[in-house]
């Protein structure tokens, strides 16, 4: 308990508990993990801002093909550098108890590489390339696959997935909530 | 369209545009500037439609003006847009997205509810905190009386939920193991380990039920004294139990006994034979043990069934969706393809490969379907014959395996009738049929898998066919074993004597079957452990340390989920069948499953590398449950048959002296008050049952029609949606054309205007 009082006040913890999907204990645990990324920095200032490459050393993010996108989406400064609060936000979205709709919203932002609020053909290409790298689908397969995806999900036939369409797909995909998850 | 008409139209259109433009300018003073800067691409407008906005985007935009921390706001697209947005959208967005602070009626409860909703917003922490502070500082009504109490209750409930979650996290079994496995093998494989845990707890529950209602009463309460058999050497019918109990001599504990379940172990609460057939007496109540025994069995089987159905229900729903074509195969492959929980570098590499392979395979399958349509007849015929031939051989192999098991069993029983004194020899003989079963289960699936490769199935159905055949092999070998038991037990001896020399029937055949199942279960786990630690582990070491090609082929192993699932399901089938004959079998199974978890964990984390086949969690779950349901049926039907048809042994157990276990239930039923019997018979009688049957069929039909209509509705709506989409596209194109025209006209006016004005 001594550690708790030194790191965060009870009030702050309550705040974090109200504003994320974590309990107070999990917040402490998250902070431990965050501290482990850069002990010297976080030791001084518990809310220190870590550069993206430091955050990407978190094991699940390091091997994740979308690691840099995740950092950028959750970073307050938009450049991938994360403070502890950003990190907490991130882990909260990826936690078990987060509802599917919240996860879907963030997934959409992660997948939306060009930031136009639509998943267009170029976004889809980027997603698939990152998923299959180092191998690459040949052009023929890629067009075929994207055609299939759009045929399935692009309800209004405009050649791109809007958020509503994306959410609809996610609703019908039983594995999404299961796979879009990082355990602390 | 004639030229004149077109002209007329254009001029009309231009007039409208002019009027619209003026209106536009009047309403939105800044609009003139905007229109010039707006791009002409209709796709750009599409992104501005309200239906295209996600909450993240809107919130982000709404925040842009107040606090321009977001980099996005500074991107070129938003820059173009920001002026207009400030004028028009700001208010709407604020009203829609922010918790409504202006509402006069905000009371404590709504404030609290809103506070709970903050976490669902895709904004960063400082903004969340800001909103929370705003909510807290806003004036709220204090609730009075009952409402206050209700709010307090809700808050307390929330608090308790958090505490419960924390506590559960602390005591949750194998939590760290799951995270490790997940990090290395993904969600599909970790589902298997959850499955083992689930089975362990199922067995634990069954154990608790049995211990409470059968074991504890037997141990605590005393039998009614009744000993009709006075002389030890009497061989009359009443003395059968005595003969049986007298055979329990020489009760020393040896390791062989523990393995075989005989000797000392036979005389304990472990087996059926121990339990008395009388009503147990206590100071307070009389306990009808035979009735409790069968009722307990029924209860735990029902409980297992309910638990399975409950767990399977969600999985089956997904399957149904998949089969009805509403499943987005490619989308879930791409958007749900990566397991975000993977934390291991080499596993990530394999996952990349697996996803690549899956996508390729699916595209391949699609192409194959196309090809199938124009595959020539000759080729079709060839594949057909190959498949028929190989299927025939698979069936032959299964039959051969069955015969082998049957004859080994006969041989072993026959040899054991002769006196075998050497303990080890005896042990081998006793275990011979089970060694045979385990051996066959190891070898034959590999042969079957090899066949599947020859049959040229698509990769996905190849997996299914191989799995299906292995399930059949496993369950049929079990079926053969049960049939052998049956042939041994069926022979009816003279009703006046306990056993006859012609019959090889054991004195207490229920205990005998219990022992056999006990042996098989133990052997199964032991062989599992042996293969994992003694065969596969050295193989892995070989592959790891000797880098030559041969050892790589010999030693490289993937974690093949279906095989491991079958191992576990098989054990559970044995438990279901055997727990009537050996009431403490579930307790043993609980311990064994606990060990199996570690064995499989070792097999998974140390011995094998992740499979290049992707196992989806939802699909594996439904696979586990369907196999488990099948094996449940395989276990329960023979058991139910023995309950109703076979005569319980005369020398032991709660049912000695009865014609069948079923007769006890009949007796019990007849002892009910007459009105209960009357009601029950009324329900069962045709006057009641036939109408009920019809009503059920009618309602079934009704729901069938409803679902069909819904399906049609879905199709109609889909079409409508596409039409609407086209309409929208059309309008957007018109709009961009209009803007283009407008801008050009402005340019023209500007270039013409200055001299005009000066004039």
Automatic annotation (TrEMBL), chain A:
Pfam families assigned to the protein according to its UniProt record, in alphabetical order = EF-hand_7
Record flagged with keyword Calcium: yes
Residues of the EF-hand domain:
99-134, 141-176
Asked if Amino-acid biosynthesis is a keyword of the record, the answer is no
MF (Gene Ontology): calcium ion binding; magnesium ion binding
Keywords of this protein's UniProt record, alphabetized? Calcium, Magnesium, Metal-binding, Repeat
- Put simply, this protein is called EF-hand domain-containing protein
Automatic annotation (TrEMBL), chain B:
User: Predominant location of this chain?
Assistant: membrane
Report which residue ranges the record marks as coiled coil: 353-382
Query: Is Coiled coil included in the keywords of this UniProt record?
Result: yes
- Tell me which InterPro entries the record gives: TMC (IPR038900), TMC_dom (IPR012496)
TM regions (residue ranges): 201-220, 287-309, 384-411, 431-454, 466-486, 580-599, 620-641, 675-704
Of the GO CC terms on this record, one is: plasma membrane
| UniProt entry keywords in alphabetical sequence | Coiled coil, Membrane, Transmembrane, Transmembrane helix
> Which compartment or compartments is the protein found in?
Membrane
Domain of life, per UniProt, equals Eukaryota
Q: Pfam families, per this entry?
A: TMC
Topology class, membrane: Multi-pass membrane protein
**A molecular function GO annotation:** mechanosensitive monoatomic ion channel activity
Q: Where is the TMC domain?
A: 508-618
Family per UniProt? Belongs to the TMC family.
Entry protein name: TMC domain-containing protein
> What organism is recorded for this protein?
Nezara viridula (Southern green stink bug)
Q: According to the entry, what is the taxonomic lineage of the organism?
A: Eukaryota, Metazoa, Ecdysozoa, Arthropoda, Hexapoda
């Amino acid at each position: 308990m001594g550690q708790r009082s030194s790191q965060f006040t009870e009030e702050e913890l309550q705040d974090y508990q109200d504003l994320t999907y974590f309990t107070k204990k999990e917040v402490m645990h998250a902070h431990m993990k965050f501290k482990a990324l850069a002990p010297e920095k976080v030791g001084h200032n518990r809310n220190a801002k870590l550069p993206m490459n430091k955050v990407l050393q978190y094991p699940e993010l390091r091997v994740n093909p979308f690691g840099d996108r995740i950092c950028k989406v959750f970073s307050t400064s938009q450049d991938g550098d994360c403070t502890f609060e950003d990190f907490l936000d991130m882990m909260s979205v990826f936690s078990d108890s987060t509802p599917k709709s919240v996860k879907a919203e963030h997934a959409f932002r992660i997948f939306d590489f060009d930031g136009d609020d639509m998943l267009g053909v170029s976004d889809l290409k980027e997603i698939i390339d990152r998923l299959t790298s180092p191998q690459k689908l040949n052009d023929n397969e890629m067009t075929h696959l994207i055609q299939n995806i759009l045929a399935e999900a692009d309800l209004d036939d405009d050649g791109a997935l809007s958020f509503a369409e994306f959410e609809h797909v996610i609703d019908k995909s039983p594995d999404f909530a299961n796979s879009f998850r990082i355990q602390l | 369209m004639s030229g004149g008409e077109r002209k007329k139209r254009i001029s009309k259109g231009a007039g409208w545009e002019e009027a619209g433009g003026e209106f536009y300018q009047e309403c939105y003073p800044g609009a003139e500037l905007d229109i010039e800067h707006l791009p002409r691409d209709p796709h750009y407008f599409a992104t501005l439609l309200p239906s295209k906005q996600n909450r993240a985007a809107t919130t982000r935009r709404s925040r842009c003006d107040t606090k321009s921390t977001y980099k996005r706001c500074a991107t070129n697209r938003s820059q173009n847009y920001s002026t207009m947005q400030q004028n028009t959208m700001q208010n709407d967005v604020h009203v829609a997205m922010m918790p409504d602070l202006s509402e006069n009626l905000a009371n404590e409860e709504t404030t609290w509810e809103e506070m709970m909703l903050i976490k669902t917003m895709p904004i960063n922490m400082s903004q969340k905190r800001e909103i929370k502070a705003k909510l807290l500082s806003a004036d709220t009504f204090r609730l009075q009386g009952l409402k206050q109490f209700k709010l307090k209750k809700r808050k307390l409930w929330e608090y308790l939920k958090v505490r419960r979650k924390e506590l559960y996290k602390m005591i949750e079994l194998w939590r760290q193991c799951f995270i490790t496995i997940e990090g290395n093998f993904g969600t599909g494989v970790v589902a298997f380990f959850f499955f083992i845990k689930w089975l362990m707890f199922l067995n634990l529950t069954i154990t608790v039920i049995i211990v409470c209602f059968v074991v504890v009463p037997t141990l605590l309460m005393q039998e009614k004294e009744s000993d009709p058999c006075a002389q030890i050497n009497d061989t009359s019918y009443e003395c059968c139990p005595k003969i049986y109990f007298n055979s329990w001599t020489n009760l020393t504990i040896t390791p062989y006994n523990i393995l075989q379940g005989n000797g000392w172990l036979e005389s304990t609460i472990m087996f059926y034979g121990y339990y008395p057939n009388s009503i147990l007496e206590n100071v307070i109540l009389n306990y009808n043990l035979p009735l409790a025994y069968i009722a307990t069995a029924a209860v735990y089987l029902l409980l297992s069934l309910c638990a399975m159905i409950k767990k399977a229900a969600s999985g089956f729903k997904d399957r149904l969706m998949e089969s009805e074509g509403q499943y987005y195969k490619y989308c879930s492959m791409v958007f749900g393809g990566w397991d975000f929980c993977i934390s291991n570098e080499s596993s990530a590499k394999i996952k990349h490969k697996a996803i690549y392979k899956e996508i390729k395979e699916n595209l391949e399958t699609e192409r194959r379907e196309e090809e199938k349509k124009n595959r020539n007849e000759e080729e079709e015929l060839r594949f057909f014959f190959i498949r028929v031939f190989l299927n025939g051989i698979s069936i032959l192999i299964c039959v051969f395996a069955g015969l082998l098991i049957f004859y080994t069993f006969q041989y072993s029983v026959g040899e054991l009738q002769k006196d075998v004194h050497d303990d080890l020899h005896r042990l081998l003989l006793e275990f011979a049929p089970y060694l045979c079963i385990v051996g066959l289960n190891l070898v034959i699936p590999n042969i079957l898998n090899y066949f599947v490769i020859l049959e040229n199935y698509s990769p996905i159905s190849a997996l299914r066919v191989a799995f299906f055949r292995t399930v059949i092999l496993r369950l049929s070998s079990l079926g053969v074993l049960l049939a052998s038991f049956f042939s041994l037990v069926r022979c009816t001896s003279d009703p006046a004597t306990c056993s006859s020399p012609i019959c090889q029937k054991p004195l207490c055949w229920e205990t005998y079957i219990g022992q056999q199942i006990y042996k098989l279960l133990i052997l199964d786990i032991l062989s599992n452990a042996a293969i994992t630690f003694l065969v596969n582990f050295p193989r892995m070491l070989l592959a790891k340390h000797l880098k030559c090609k041969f050892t790589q082929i010999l030693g490289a192993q993937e974690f093949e989920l279906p095989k491991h699932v079958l191992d576990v399901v098989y054990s559970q089938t044995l438990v279901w069948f055997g727990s009537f004959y050996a009431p403490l079998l579930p307790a043993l199974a609980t311990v064994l499953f606990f060990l199996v978890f570690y064995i499989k964990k070792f097999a998974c984390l140390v011995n094998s590398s992740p499979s290049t086949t992707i196992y989806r969690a939802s699909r594996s779950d439904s696979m586990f449950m369907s196999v488990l349901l099948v094996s449940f049926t395989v276990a329960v039907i023979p058991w139910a048959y023995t309950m109703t048809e076979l005569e319980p042994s005369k020398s032991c157990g709660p049912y000695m002296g009865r014609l069948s276990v079923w007769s006890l239930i009949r007796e019990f039923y007849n002892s009910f008050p007459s009105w209960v019997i009357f009601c029950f018979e009324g329900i069962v009688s045709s006057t009641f049952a036939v109408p009920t049957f019809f009503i059920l069929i009618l309602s079934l039909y009704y729901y069938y029609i409803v679902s069909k209509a819904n399906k049609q509705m879905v199709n109609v709506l889909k079409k409508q949606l596409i039409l609407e989409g086209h309409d929208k596209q059309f309008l957007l194109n018109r709009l961009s054309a209009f803007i283009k025209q407008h801008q050009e006209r402005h340019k023209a006016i500007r270039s013409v205007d200055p001299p005009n004005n000066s004039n």
